[in-house]
Amino acid sequence: MNYRQEYLKALEKDCIELVVNAYNTAITDKKYKIDWLENDFSELLGYYVNESPLSLKKRITCKTENKLLSELENKKKGFADKLPRIDFVYFKIWKENRFHCYMEAKRLKQKNSNLKRSYINEGMQRYISKKYPIGCMLGYLLEGQSSETIKGINIMLKKDKRETEILNHKQNKLLENYYESNHSEIGIMKHLIFDFTEF
To answer: Which of 4, 17, 93, 138 is most buried, most CB within 10 Å of its CB?
Structure first.
């Protein structure tokens, strides 16, 4: 592994710590509403990340709803409106290089199959297809239990004949509801499930 890969791995770890801390602050402050939309939760977490002394110490900045431009060749008028948008981009400059970490978020409810399907198709799949650079998934749990919701996502993946891509619970000192999935195209994807149900 070269130094750039090592640095990106360390940056991802720092960004996960920042967003988990932001989630914990949101739970403590209780300034959210359970009927909020996905972008509302993302803006709240982004705000707490950037207000965190740890983000200043680590020199990491978070942007939300960021457009992804991969090249400038053959662009026509209006191309910017069609660019994919990812929910979170974290960046840090080190040794005259800019490093990025990406996170895509989706709302989840235990008994809502449409939201679980969106988590797979409009979340995970965007990384797998490389529409988005590799990053982490965030799930905003708004109803039900985390374990049952993940079980529902895994049932859908199995029905899609994607048994090897199911979400597996892993120990993480920062977050109880932490999962990983393995994908032949991109390797391991991290999943952070933020439980907003106990308001």
So the answer is: 138
Sign of CA dihedral 22, 28, 32, 35: positive
Q: What tokens appear for 6 in the block?
A: 């090592």
Q: Does 171 map to a domain?
A: yes
For residue 74, tell me if it sits in a domain: no
Residue 79 confidence (pLDDT)? 75
The 10s digit of each residue's pLDDT in 52-91 is 999 999 999 999 987 776 655 666 787 777 767 889 999 9
* d(C-alpha 116, C-alpha 94), whole Å: 37
∠ CA 190-191-192 to the nearest 5 degrees? 125
Query: What is the structure's pLDDT at 73?
Result: 63
Q: Is residue 90 part of a domain?
A: yes
Q: Give me the domain span that covers residue 161.
A: 3-67+81-195
* Count of the separate structural domains present in the chain: 1
Q: What is the 3-state secondary structure (H, E, C) of 28-87?
A: HHCCCCCCCCHHHHHHHHHHHHHHCHHHHHHCCEEEEEEECCCCCCCCCCCHHHHCCEEE
Kindly give the parts of the chain with pLDDT less than 50: none
Q: Is residue 76 in a domain? A: no
